[in-house]
Amino acid sequence: MKKCLFIVNPISGGLSKKQFLLELENFCRSEQLEYGVIETANEGNDTRIQSAIKSFQPQVVVACGGDGTVNLVARNLLNTDMEMAIIPLGSANGLAGDLGIPSDNQKALQLLLSGKIRALDVIAINEDEYCLHLSDLGFNATIVENFNRSNLRGQLAYLLFFLKSLFTDHTRNYHFILPDQSFQKKAAMVVLANGSRYGFGAEVNPVGRPDDGHFELCVFSNYPWYAFFSVLFHFLTGQLKSSRYYEVFSTERLFIKADRPVELQVDGEPLGPFDEVNAILLPRRVNTLVPA
After folding, report:
1. What is the CA angle 189-192-198, rounded to 5?
2. Residues 102 and 164 in one domain
3. How many C-beta atoms lie closer than 10 Å to residue 278's C-beta?
4. Total number of domains in the chain
5. CA separation (Å) from 230 to 166, 187, 247?
6. Distance of CA 37 to the CA centre of its chain
7. How confident is the model at residue 92, as a pLDDT?
8. How far, in Å, CA of 162 to CA of 87, rounded?
9. 3-state DSSP: the chain helix, strand, coil percent, rounded to 5?
10. Does the keyword ATP-binding apply (predicted)?
11. pLDDT tens-digit readout, 180-200
């Protein structure tokens, strides 16, 4: 009998998980899956997950939430043979979208039975943080920080904080060091991309794949106020390569130095202000169930 451990974020997406938990129970019983459930809390999640993995010994650990919940599960499965599955229930489900995982709960649950394994790369950031999908400094990281400090959830809440962030200066002077080059640039946002799209659908990295052996540095150069809507248009329509204010570099290693601290977020979780970021790719570290 297959054993599945479900990690459920009870506040992801701003919706109650009562109905989902009933769906989960009925699915596991009908498919004769042995299962356990952990609901995440404000702290102590890694310890609780590790303890449950040790005692329950599941074959699959299922992240039920948004990108932050997926990150939580993945970092507890690094360098193991266990598989990760994703039920996208968050405000942002960017990685699930990149992997083609259905937003319908029943279809996503079916991947526990019919999914194929895809070994995903991970970006190690400042040694003790891990990114599966997208991390960034500046504009979007400030939105994520404000979003997580509030009690609001959902896409409308994100839009509210997006509009608020338009009136904040996010620009920094950055020094970028890659294995084959180094350069300096003033930028409003810097993205470390292991995937391609944010959860709200905007494509930040046209060449992004989470299992291709490298990640992308995407730099949004400082632009005049009158160019904002041009940049936004290119961003939302998947035409960033046509923007004079956007550049992308593929790499396996990266060091970033900012002239003063700037907000950093990793997979939708704010980490606070940093003035240095060291990023190294760890290839094929998380076995993930995706549509066949």
Report:
1. 75
2. no
3. 14
4. 2
5. 14, 16, 15
6. 22
7. 78
8. 26
9. 30, 40, 30
10. yes
11. 999 999 999 999 999 998 877
